[in-house]
Structure formats: structure tokens, C-alpha cells
Backbone:
């Protein structure tokens, strides 16, 4: 006992030092990993901003591109911006009501088993690669007849939005206190009125947040548009029954071009898209913190 | 408490819960929407398989390992071999790179970060997920690819050239390696944000117990946090893998294209998704289109498998933890 007592403290001290050193190294590595993630975002935003800033002018939004010509006339991507506005707006109109209805059904009406089953389906739908959704809409609507159009592209994007909107709405509805529903039902108000005029208005802020995030996500989505709205001319059009150029697809096509002038426009368009998406995400985050407090009634 | 007036409820069994027309309508419409969302998954599977039918009946299962893509009319021959290889190798290495980084980020955000930086860094990591793939791809081909070629690929080749993975540097910067880095960036946010939530869900009494026994923070993480979150981390990694396999646009921009199997990461190639995105508009014949859709079928099957496996693990883990928690209470 005493012999051990003489030697052990020294060794224990050594071991403790080593353990503390290992701990130190691991903590440092975790800090480093977080730093790398933030640095990647910084580098991407900075490189896009640096190259896009110089090309950023009104022509980008107001002039259409002039393909296959050696002209110095100012070119822009007005057709792409118009198309993205139309298609994203249409897809929101398609996905939002359906997503909210799905969420209402699952949260307010469905049994637990049904809720789980549809929940699995929603998660699977969210996991289908965007390009496969493009193939699906192509097979369903484009190949059969009629060809490409903005509406079909919007339908493809709506499929990508649907699980996202439904999931966030379910989460928000679950935050609404049950005491509100019970109070309303207790006053003899039928369930449909309780849902539509008590529960839903309370949750609207959270639903809005989810919608903004969903819009930000699909606005940059490219793959489904390849199949549904890619064979386009340079003219600016707002008519969704024809194929419309979009910002992500324009960036994709310009990035594959060998012409540095095309790259410049791609950077500028990417910068605008990135600014919009960063702005939307930050707005959504701000809305989220505000609405979460309001929904729970605190 | 439930029934104040039992006799009255018994006497009037139907008025206790009157069925309103509005209830029926809302429940019907909402239920229809839920049914539609569920059927949509089946419809997608059916329609995509249907579109690939000419290629499936012509090439059958050997399509999976044939390394050929010849759309010349009259001599058409198609196979997915090299694209499956490209998908496997790029998503595998992306996962290898992303896993330690994501774990580090998640541990930082859940255990280490001072309160002041925790919120902003969480927001920034989630913002990284919002950057569109086409923008990452644009940056990947014009900035990242050339930089990797001049600074990293040559170095790795001269230092570790004896490993077949590190062949001669790519001519333009478009390579499997660039695709790996781009995919790593794209799956990093999802894996780290799921892991962060898992780590935050570890019961504090377990962590405090380990610390009270004299464990250092890292020993506590290794002994308590990782084992507790193991299943969930597996699910997060599988979801990341699914995301990496399905990413089309950014990969198409940086991978360079080509129908061959090279062990070198610095050669160009194609994944299932990038082949579809790159060739789709140039497809010449019906068989060509059907073969591309066949690639889509493979991709769909792989991503469904990944997704369902991840969901199964998540539900199993939730049940296990729910049971232990219930048992304790």
C-alpha cells in the first residue's frame, strides 16, 4: 500500500497529463471543423460576390441575352429572372395549400398509425433526388404530349416543396397549445371552424417561415427544370404555358460555355440568386424566433 | 370528470358528438391531400420505371455492370457500370471527408461553443445548406477545380503516387476529386445539423455522471455522447450518402464526363445523376432516353433504400430511447 503510494502519484500525474492533452487536441479539432465550415461558406459567398459584383447592373435584369452573335450590345438575363419569378410563384401556389392540408389532416384528424404511415411517405418524398422528380414529370406530362412549359416546371418544383411545407407546418401546428383547441371546442365551435379560425391563424407565422425557406430552396433548384422548361429562346416571356428560361438553368448553361463573357454573366446571376437566398433564409430565421414565441402564447 | 351528467349522455347518445358537415368536408379534403402525397411516391416509382421500360427489356440486369455508352444509331449499346462506379466512389469519399468534419462541427455546437458564437455559427452552417447546387457547381468548376489541380492534386500525386487513387493531376480541374470536394461541402450541413440535434438530446445526467467520475470532456464524449447517439449518427450518414448520390447539377459541372473506370480520383468521370443531367438534352433516340431513365431508376432505388434504412434506424433508436426513458421515470 505504502510502496504503491510512493510511485503511483507520479504515474497518475503523467496519465492525467496525457488525458488532458488528448482532450485539448480533440477540442481543438472540433473548433477547427467549425471554422472550416464557416470558412467554406465565406469563401463561396466571397468568390461569387467578388466576380458577380462588377457585372451587376440593371441590364442584367432588363435586357435579354443575344445568343450566337458578336455584338457589343448590352446583354442581360431578363428572360431567366422573369421565368424564375413565374415558375417559383406558381409552384408555391400549388404546394402551399396542399402542404397545409396534409399537415392539418395529420395533426388534427389522423390516427397515430395513419400519421406514421404518411410521415414515412413524406420523408421518402423528400429523399427522392430532384433529378428523378424531373424525369417523373417529364414522363408524366412532357413526353406524352404538349412538350415543356413553365406550369410543368412549377409542378416539378411543387413536388420538391410539398414535403418541406408539410413537415414545417406539422411542427408549427404541434406547437399550438391544446388548451386553445379545447376552449374552442368547449364553446361548441365545430372542429373545422376551430382548425381554420383558431389553430391556423395562430400558426400562420410559422407556416410563413417554412414557406419562405421552401421558396429559397426551390428557387435555386436546377435539375427538374432541365426536363420541364429548358428548350427556350432568348426573349423575355411571362407566359407559363410555354417553356421559360430560369436563373439556375441560365447559370448552368453559361458555366459550361467557353466564353469568359458568359462566365461573367453567370457570376452576376449567381450573385443575385445567392443574395436572394441568403436574404430569404435570414428573414425566415428572424420570423421563426418571433413566431415561435407567439404561437406558444408566451 | 369526463361526464358530469351520465344519464343525459346515455339518453341522448348522438348529440354528445354532433357531426358537422364542415368537419366532414375539411377532413375529406385534408385526407385527400394526405392520400395524394402518399400516392405520389408510388406514382413516381411507377412512372420512372415505365419510362425506362424499353431499356430494361432490351438490356435487362446486365445493364448494371456493362461499361459502355454508345448512342450512335444502329450501334447503340448502353450500360451503367462506369456511372455506378462514379457514384459509389464520389459519394463514398465525400462521406469519408464529411464525417469527421460534421462530427467536429456538431460537437462544437452542442458541447464546446461559447454561448455568443453558438447561435451565429449554427445559423451559418445551416445557411451553407441553402446555397444552391448550381452556384456551388459554378464556383467548383471556375475556382475550386483549377485551385485543386495546381495546389493539391500535383502534391498528392508526387507524395502518394504509389497509391492508385492519386494519379496524375487532371488537365482542367474537372475530376472525380473536385466532385468529391463539392459533394462534401453539400452534405456537410445536413449531417452536422442532424448530429448536433442528436448530441443535444443526450440526457444531461449521463454526461454529468461521466464528468463527475473524473472523465475529461473528450472521454465523456467518447464514452457517453457517441454511444448514445450511435444509431442516429448512422442514420444521418446514410441520409448524407443519399444526398450525395442524388446530387446532379453541381457534380455535372465539375466531374468532366466520360465512360470509363479509373482508380485515379484525378481523372474525369460521371455519376448516375450527372450522366442524366449532362446527356438528357442531347439524347438522340428513344432507346437513348430510356437508358438514361434506366439510370434514373437505379438512382431512385438507391435513394429509396438509403432513405428507408435511415428512417428505420431513426424509429428504432427513438423507440429504444423512449423505452429507457419511460423505464426510468
Residues:
Amino acid at each position: 500500500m505504502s510502496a504503491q503510494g510512493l510511485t503511483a502519484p507520479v504515474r497518475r500525474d503523467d496519465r492525467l497529463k496525457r488525458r488532458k492533452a488528448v482532450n485539448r487536441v480533440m477540442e481543438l479539432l472540433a473548433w477547427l471543423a467549425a471554422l472550416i465550415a464557416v470558412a467554406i461558406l465565406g469563401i463561396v459567398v466571397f468568390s461569387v460576390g467578388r466576380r458577380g459584383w462588377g457585372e451587376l447592373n440593371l441590364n442584367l435584369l432588363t435586357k435579354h441575352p443575344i445568343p450566337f452573335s458578336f455584338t457589343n450590345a448590352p446583354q442581360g438575363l431578363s428572360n431567366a429572372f422573369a421565368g424564375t419569378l413565374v415558375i417559383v410563384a406558381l409552384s408555391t401556389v400549388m404546394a402551399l395549400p396542399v402542404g397545409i392540408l396534409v399537415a392539418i389532416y395529420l395533426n388534427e384528424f389522423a390516427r397515430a398509425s395513419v400519421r406514421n404511415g404518411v410521415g414515412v411517405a413524406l420523408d421518402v418524398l423528400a429523399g427522392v433526388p430532384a433529378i428523378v422528380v424531373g424525369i417523373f414529370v417529364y414522363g408524366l406530362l412532357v413526353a406524352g404530349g404538349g412538350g415543356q412549359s413553365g406550369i410543368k416546371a412549377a409542378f416539378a418544383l411543387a413536388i420538391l416543396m410539398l414535403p418541406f411545407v408539410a413537415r414545417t407546418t406539422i411542427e408549427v401546428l404541434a406547437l399550438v397549445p391544446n388548451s386553445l383547441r379545447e376552449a374552442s371546442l368547449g364553446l361548441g365551435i365545430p372542429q373545422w371552424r376551430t382548425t381554420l379560425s383558431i389553430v391556423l391563424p395562430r400558426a400562420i407565422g410559422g407556416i410563413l417561415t417554412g414557406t419562405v425557406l421552401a421558396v429559397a430552396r426551390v428557387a435555386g433548384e436546377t435539375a427538374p427544370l432541365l426536363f420541364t422548361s429548358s428548350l427556350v429562346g432568348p426573349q423575355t416571356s411571362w407566359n407559363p404555358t410555354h417553356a421559360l428560361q430560369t436563373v439556375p438553368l441560365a447559370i448552368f448553361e453559361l458555366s459550361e460555355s467557353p466564353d469568359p463573357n458568359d462566365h461573367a454573366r453567370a457570376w452576376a446571376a449567381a450573385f443575385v440568386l445567392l443574395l436572394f437566398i441568403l436574404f430569404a433564409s435570414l428573414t425566415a430565421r428572424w420570423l421563426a424566433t418571433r413566431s415561435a414565441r407567439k404561437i406558444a402564447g408566451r | 370528470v369526463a361526464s358530469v351528467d351520465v344519464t343525459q349522455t346515455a339518453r341522448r347518445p348522438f348529440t354528445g358528438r354532433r357531426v358537422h358537415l364542415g368537419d366532414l368536408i375539411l377532413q375529406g379534403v385534408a385526407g385527400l391531400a394526405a392520400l395524394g402525397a402518399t400516392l405520389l411516391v408510388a406514382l413516381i416509382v411507377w412512372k420512372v420505371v415505365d419510362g425506362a421500360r424499353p431499356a430494361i427489356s432490351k438490356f435487362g440486369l446486365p445493364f448494371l455492370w456493362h461499361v459502355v455508352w454508345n448512342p450512335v444509331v444502329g450501334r447503340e449499346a448502353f450500360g451503367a457500370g462506369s456511372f455506378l462506379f462514379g457514384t459509389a466512389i464520389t459519394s463514398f469519399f465525400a462521406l469519408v471527408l464529411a464525417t469527421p468534419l460534421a462530427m467536429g462541427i456538431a460537437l462544437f455546437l452542442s458541447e464546446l461553443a461559447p454561448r455568443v458564437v453558438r447561435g451565429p455559427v449554427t445559423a451559418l452552417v445551416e445557411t451553407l445548406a441553402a446555397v444552391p447546387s448550381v452556384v456551388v457547381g459554378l464556383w467548383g468548376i471556375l475556382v475550386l477545380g483549377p485551385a485543386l489541380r495546381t495546389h493539391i492534386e500535383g502534391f498528392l500525386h508526387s507524395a502518394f503516387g504509389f497509391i492508385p487513387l492519386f494519379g496524375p493531376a487532371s488537365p482542367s480541374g474537372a475530376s472525380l476529386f473536385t466532385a468529391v470536394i463539392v459533394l462534401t461541402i453539400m452534405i456537410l450541413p445536413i449531417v452536422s445539423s442532424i448530429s448536433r440535434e442528436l448530441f443535444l438530446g443526450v440526457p444531461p445526467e449521463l454526461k454529468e455522471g461521466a464528468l463527475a467520475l473524473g472523465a475529461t470532456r473528450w472521454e465523456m464524449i467518447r464514452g457517453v455522447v457517441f454511444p448514445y447517439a450511435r444509431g442516429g449518427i448512422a442514420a444521418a450518414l446514410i441520409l448524407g450518402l443519399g444526398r450525395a448520390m442524388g446530387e446532379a447539377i453541381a457534380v455535372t459541372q465539375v466531374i468532366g464526363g466520360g465512360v470509363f473506370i479509373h482508380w485515379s480520383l484525378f481523372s474525369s468521370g460521371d455519376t448516375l445523376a450527372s450522366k442524366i443531367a449532362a446527356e438528357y438534352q442531347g439524347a438522340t433516340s428513344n432507346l437513348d432516353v430510356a437508358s438514361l431513365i434506366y439510370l434514373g431508376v437505379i438512382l431512385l432505388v438507391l435513394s429509396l433504400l438509403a432513405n428507408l434504412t435511415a428512417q428505420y434506424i431513426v424509429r428504432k433508436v427513438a423507440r429504444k430511447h423512449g423505452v429507457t426513458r419511460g423505464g426510468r421515470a
User: Anything to note?
Assistant: Confidence is low (pLDDT under 50) at residues 1-15, 324-329 of chain B. Residues 137 and 250 of chain B are 4 Å apart (CA to CA). The beta strands of chain B are 69-70, 77-78.
